[in-house]
Every structure is written in structure tokens, then in C-alpha cells.
Amino acid sequence: MSLPSLVPHRGRRFAITARILSAVVFTFVCYLGIGIPLAVLPGFVHGGLGYSTVLAGLAVSVQYAATLLSRPHAGRMADAMGPKRAVVAGLIVFAIAGLFLALAALVPKTPVLSLALIILSRFGLGFAESWVGTGCIAWGIAGIGGEHTARVISWNGIATYGGIALGAPLGVTLAAHHGFIALGVVTFALGALVLPFALWKRHVPPTHGERLSFRSVLSRVMPYGAGLALGSIGFGSLSTFVALYYASRGWDGAAMSLSVFGGCFIGMRLVFGNAIDRFGGYRVAIASLTLECLGLLLLWLGGTPELALGGAALTGAGFALVFPSLGVEAVSRVSMHNRGAALGAYSVFLDVALGVTGPLGGWVAGRFDYPGIFLMAAVASIVGAVLSVSLYLRFGRA
Question: How far apart are CA 57 and CA 368, in angstroms?
């Protein structure tokens, strides 16, 4: 390609990326707020309010339940009212959730009221996660065209994991220097500060056409969601059990393995984000799930911390493109005016997979020790790759 033609091409790609980032920045802010209380909240509920570790875990898990319940509504809202409406509603609820969290810190001597406010805050964050996350993807796609769906989903994922990665240590620092109330105040401030920018951003009107029922949309995306769920078990297993796995072996560096996983995840999305456009979602999904399986097998077999670290790196690199590669194909199975519903239905499978991985992995660890968890996840990943092959043979060559 000659230089005169290369410069406009690069300029257009930069403009497209800038438009994508203008949408997914709201996802980043939302997940930054989700990450802020993540490492501090269980300790506050258990140590500060005096509740059991079961209730402390429940206070965190309530958010995931709310996310799961609100996914279908989030997709419907983005389709019927436009993605801007979904994002704005999510940011308002996000700010209110921060307010409830701050109020919970003011009444620690009334544990029942404080816990109730925390649970309301977690519910709010769960709904905000659905509305903002689904709305931002739909907003980005509507703004630049369906041919860039993979890039929008990839950048939204980077915003998601980047927000959590920055939010968790920020929350620990805030709590250490300013107390638990600072978590709620900062979350409220984040929502209040970015809300005007969402209101100012150009509205993309909803497309008109037949709206499929959620059941119909779910049936169309189910095979792709099943592949996503199978691939997500590896991520859930690593994030939940790698610290216990390292401790059972007497190793240091569990936090490093999570950092390496996250770094490889984001690096793959940045470097190979265009692979889906070049090779198609099915092929990228097959390669990604196979690579993830190899990483999980290394974790299963890893007799040294170095091998386990390599396994975490391969798992992160493999999992990085599973969501966008299968997501592109899932969205293509419905018409444009059902795209938000398809994204919501597809994301449900991620929520369910992460929800069941904890208890399932705990059962496996009790029966076969911690390495067995990663063998289970490796088997799930390769089954996901086989499923992707079958989908490619059925739809990918049409």
C-alpha cells in the first residue's frame, strides 16, 4: 500500500477507535466503581459489622445476581429506546449505589441497616453493570456500523477488566486513608461526573422492526453462549482458586499470576483485535479456546511456580478473544433491531458460568485437590473448541 493511501487509512482507523472509546469510557467508569469495594467490602461486613463470612460473601454475590436478572431488560432497553437511554439510566443507578454505600458506612452501630444499605448498593451496581455495559456496546456498534462489532466488543472488554484492575487497589488505598465511607463517596462522584458527558453525547435512535421475544433471541444465541460459558470456566477457576492453589503448594506469587493473566488478556485484545475481522469469529474462537486449554493444562501439571505462571499467561491470552469472537457470530444471528437483546442474552452465559464455577470448583478441589479444578476447566475449554468447530462447519462456510 502506498504512503498516500496508507495515511488516510490510518486516519480512518484512528477516528473509528476514537468513536469506540467515546462509548466504552462509560463502561470503564462503571467497572472502576465495581472494582473499588471488591477487596474491602467482605472485610467490612465480616470484621466491621460482625456478620459471618457466608453473609460477607453473599453481600458481594448479590451484585452478580442483579446483573444476571437485568441482562434481558438491558438489551431490550437498548433496542427499544436507544443505547443512550440504557447508559444514562445505568449511570444514574450507579451514582445512587455509591450513595447507599456511603450511607452504610455512617451506621456501623446498626449492623442490620448498614447491611441492608450495602445490599441495595450491590443491587444497584448489578443493574448498572448490565445497562451501562450492554448499552455501551450497542452505542458503539450503532455509531460506527455493524462491521466493527468485534472491535467494539474487544475495547469494551478492555475497559471492563482495566476498570476492575485499577478499582480494586484504589479501593484499598481509599479505605486505608479515608475510611470505608470514601468508597461510596468516590463511586457517587464518578457517576455524577460522567453523567453529563453521556447526556451530551449524540443520541443514536433505535432501529424499527420486529422485536423478537427474549426466548427466541436466547435460542438463537444459545450455542454461542454455551461456548462462551465453557471458555469462561477457566477464567473463573483461575481468579477464584489460584491463590488457594499456590498456598496449597507453599508457593509465593499468586498475585503475580493474576497480573500476568490480566496483562496477557489485555495485550492480546490490543495486538490481535483485528484477527476476528480477518479470519472470522469461528476460527478465532477455536484457536483461542485451544490456547486457553493448553494454559489450563499447564496449571494442572505445573510442578513449579514458573510453570504455573506460564499457564496463567496462556490462559489469559487464550481467553482474551473468546467473548468477542463468539459474540460477533451470535449477534449476526439476529436482525439489527434485536442486537441489544442478543448481547444481553449472550452475556447471561458468562454470568452463569462465573456463578457456578465457585461451588463447582470447590467440590472438585474437595474430591481431587486444587489442580483438578484446572483440569476440569481445560476439559471445558476443549469442549468449547469442539462446539465452535461444529458451528463453523454449520454456519461459517455458508
Answer: 24
